[in-house]
Amino acid sequence: MRLRTLVWxxxxxxxxxxxxxxxxxxxxxxxxxxxxxxxxxxEKAVARELDSLGANVLVLPKSVTLxxxxxxxxxxxxxxxxxxxxxxxxxxxxxDNLSPKLCVPVTLQGKKYTLTGIxxxxxxxxxxxxxxxxxxxxxxxxxxxxxxxEPGPEDKKTLVRKRVIKTLGTHEAxxxxxxxxxLGTKEGDSLALLGEPFSVIAVLPETGTVDDSRIFAHxxxxxxxxxxxxVVNCIEVVGxxxxxSAGLVDGVNKLLPDAKVVTVKQVVATQANVNRxxxxxxxxxxxxxxxxxxxxxxxxxxxxxxxxxREIGTLMALGADSLLILRLFLLKAxxxxxAGGIGGFAIGTIVAVTLGPRLAGVPVLPMPVLxxxxxxxxxxxxxxxxxxxxxxAARLDPCATFQEV
Amino acid sequence: xxxxxxxxxxxxxxxxxxxxxxxxxGPSMTGPWGAQAAAPATSRGLTALDxxxxxxxxxxxxxxxxxxxxxxxxxxVFQSAMAKWADSTDSIxxxxxxxxxxxxxxxxxxxRAPMPLVVAIAPNGAITxxxxxxxxxxxxQTAFVSPCAAKCLKALQDRKLVLLCVQNQxxxxxxxxxxxxxxxxxxxxxxxxxxIVTLNPDHPAEIRLLDELQVNPRTPExxxxxxxxxxxxxxxxxxxxxxxEIVAKVASAQSGCCPGGKCGPGGCGPSK
Lengths: 405, 272
Prior knowledge:
The complex is a heterodimer of chains A (405) and B (272). With 405 residues, chain A is an alpha+beta fold. Chain A has helices spanning 3-11, 15-53, 82-89, 159-162, 177-183, 219-225, 242-255, 264-307, 309-317, 322-360, 369-394, 398-404; strands at 57-61, 79-80, 98-108, 111-118, 172-175, 190-193, 196-203, 214-218, 231-232, 234-237, 259-263. The relative contact order of chain A is 0.19. Chain B has 272 residues and is an alpha/beta fold. Chain B has 2 domains: 27-141, Glutaredoxin (3-Layer(aba) Sandwich); 147-255, Glutaredoxin (3-Layer(aba) Sandwich), CATH 3.40.30.10. In chain B, 39% of the residues lie in helices and 18% in strands.
């Protein structure tokens, strides 16, 4: 009888125990793969956010706590809109680009979306020149210079990237990718929002953030339609010069003591903490796999060897050497480990891809490299756990086993 | 039967009517509460603006919305300063919710501005400084700027590029510098959006502006400073300069995002 046949038959002896061990390995690997996958993409998102928005600052109501930069304006608390002009007219450097926002819920075709009021730059930019002659000594800020002689019409779709828009009509709207896909809205269409018609001037590209479920319109129109006063949920100070934004927070804190000033770094620090926690969690899961899975496998193998010592003795009496017995049990353990690793990787990846976007708010893609890692870990654990029982089996004395029987 | 109280009532009514006229706004009643007391049918703000421009004076406008503690305190500061500078400045208080001042409030776009707000306007119409909510006399004083600075601010507030030519008979390459500026302004791409302002570096009133622009008042050669709205110096050319050099700087500043500045990672602005 060939070794392969022996291993195959051996695998299906004591099926219930084998299945329990297999499940333990699969579940453990599933958890580790899912956590590692989500953490990887979450960290990537954090790094990207820091890279692209690192110099940005949020001005929020004092009582607001936030987890996600992109949904920083989605709360009930408000601050006066006049803060925008206070910032613009101040001598603080780095407040060239501001984006005040006010969010109100809207229902379109039975689905809830967020209507976000934004203020185009042309409505407050001129006030920056009210800073007086002192403005001449300021360093050149961020953002291309804006003169009456424009190089061409503004690409409104850059709103998602630049976070500010130069001009926006009172009844013009920019529609997020998800909203446009659900409603089948195209550029140039008309859209009824809170009882008034809006002209869709752009469908924004997909961002993978809550911005995809937003409709942007003029702040003052949104305030009027929502029955709100001159208030906003948040003011985003869009900076690109880290040197400038470093001193920005102190300046804004002094100017607006009743508001909370948060940097992107602080916001993403929360996300980074979650990532670190997930990383630790994956280490704990790994330890559990090693201890529980390893012990289970070792126990299963010991029991197997003990119960089947007569068969082992017979095999050896028929000429099978110790190495064959050792290989038989180790190969069985390896197969079990590999199957558990592959199964765990597959289920873990499905879990990560499905639940990751909901739990971490980032799109998660399969990571093939984790397959090697999963198979390696589970194979290694089963091999190590099975080595001593297999060695014991290989050292059995056939005569002694027959005497016992 | 005639009432005995008839003549007495008539006298009281006559006194009341007389009193009403006698309490009308005098020359000193230009503050916020005075404005409320008796506003003319047309915008007092716009009239004051015209008058100040005609007489070559600065106009300080005190915009207010609510008769609260902060407004009263700041109006005290405002009045005290205005009394000292009465020779060179006009002043007026404007209640932004007054329908007759709608044109004035809209002109300056202050309906949603923090109040009280003082806006200083140079004789040429340039807003030389805005003081929201809290200010003192020393801060108000900073609103007075040199004639050149006022010219630059006016052009920049009209969203124009400013070519500030710092030169006089003493400086070298004067002709080359002014020639390049004029040639740039003659270009149809920039003609409508460019203003040339000449500054004599020896003029004592311009020392502050030169200092802010970091231009040496004793410069031996002409200096041309390119200013972009709202007021940032985009480029500085010492000595001879050509139109092409200025065009290149403008093009770079229009397409780039940190003209001359230090940018964060990934360049200027989110790269996502």
